[in-house]
Amino acid sequence: MLLPVYLIELGFAPFEVGVLATASLLGSALLTVGAGLLGARYDHRQLLLAAASLMIATGAAFAVVHDYALLLVVAFAGTINPSAGSVSVFVPLEHAALSGAAAPAARTAMFARYSLVGALAAAAGALAAASPEVLAAAGVERLTAVKLMFVLYAALGAAGGVLYARIPRRAPAATGPPRRSAPRGAS
Question: pTM score, two decimals?
């Protein structure tokens, strides 16, 4: 929700804002599909750390880049989400990591807690979206206040990276067709 405000503050036309938001959603969707395809073959911890690094880079880039073409590339390749929905590379990776971390009988309770924390984080993010207005009322230039939100986004990516680094490494799943066992009596 902050992205369109930022782009308009930079002076971009509504059509340009729409194109950039669309590129962001398309890039997020492709990144999420890619995570789904790679998630079973690679260590979830490494993929989550890579996603957190991309989040840091995205936040930092949005805080300093003003050129439309570069912003378009950052929006497409980054992790920024211009909508209130959960279109994120993190969700399928976190789900995969969590499903293997709990016994089957405990998974429902674990995912309930995960959903609760996600909803509370979304609520905190919605509340934080008012921060630029509060900072502007306190005398901070509005564009600077919005840029600080992207710095905060990068900092949250760093915090996520610290948490993801605590996930135990997992051996990648074997690729290829499953091996068949020899029929009984065959040698």
Answer: 0.83
Q: How far is CA 118 from the centre of its chain?
A: 12
CA–CA separation, 141 and 21 (whole Å): 24
Q: How far, in Å, CA of 153 to CA of 132, rounded? A: 13
- Nearest Cα neighbor of 42 from 130, 174, 162, 186 is 174
State mean pLDDT over 96-124. Answer: 89
Q: What amino acid occupies position 100?
A: G
Cβ(86)–Cβ(95) below 8 Å: no
The pLDDT > 70 percentage for the chain reads 87
To which residue do tokens 């309930």 refer? 112
Q: What average pLDDT does the chain have? A: 86
Of 31, 162, 156, 164, residue with least CA distance to 88:
31
pLDDT band at residue 126 under the 50/70/90 scheme = confident
User: DSSP alpha helices (H): ranges in 44-180?
Assistant: 44-64, 68-77, 90-99, 107-128, 131-137, 142-164
Task: Label residue 85 exposed, middle or buried (CB < 10 Å: 0-12, 13-18, 19+).
Answer: exposed
What CA–CA distance (Å, rounded) separates 92 from 33? 9
Would the pLDDT of 142 be above 80? yes
Q: DSSP readout, 148-184?
A: HHHHHHHHHHHHHHHHHTTSPP-PPPP-SSPPPPPPT
